[in-house]
Amino acid sequence: MIRMKTISKRILTIVIALMVLSFFTGEVQATSYDDDDSLIVSIESADYLDLDADQMEDDILTEFRITVPTGNWNFRYTYIYCELVLPSGYYFNCMILLIGTYNSVSLSLGWYNCAIESGWYTFSLWAWGEGHDAPNLGYDSVIFDPPTPGDEGDPFIDIIQIIAA
Q1: Domain assignment present for 17
Q2: What is the pTM of this model?
């Protein structure tokens, strides 16, 4: 017969406290995937606000950066697929084609009238190059929580800013 020592109340309390605190680490959680041969994709922010001045904070601003990894790359086309998933599972998406060379590019996307449900939203981004010697797929995702439902106007997406270096 194996005897196991019981856990003290203090250790049990600490373990439970750490588990509870892990649920309150902030409003935004990001994950990313990259290797030496992938585009480096980084979501800088995702937040709700009133972009269209309709007095409703039902718009979402996402900002991200794509960086070419160190190496001898030869490509001129970059495809960027963006997806905003609402708590219900309904989603908005867009595909962006960048033509030209760059070391790093930052984009800001406005998702107008898209914050229409309460709950956790997921913004995901996939980017890949196409050409003779192009980097592999890069990916990043972030989860955030707009506080209240908004007005269900006609949703649309707009590129607010592009900065290439």
Answers
A1: no
A2: 0.72
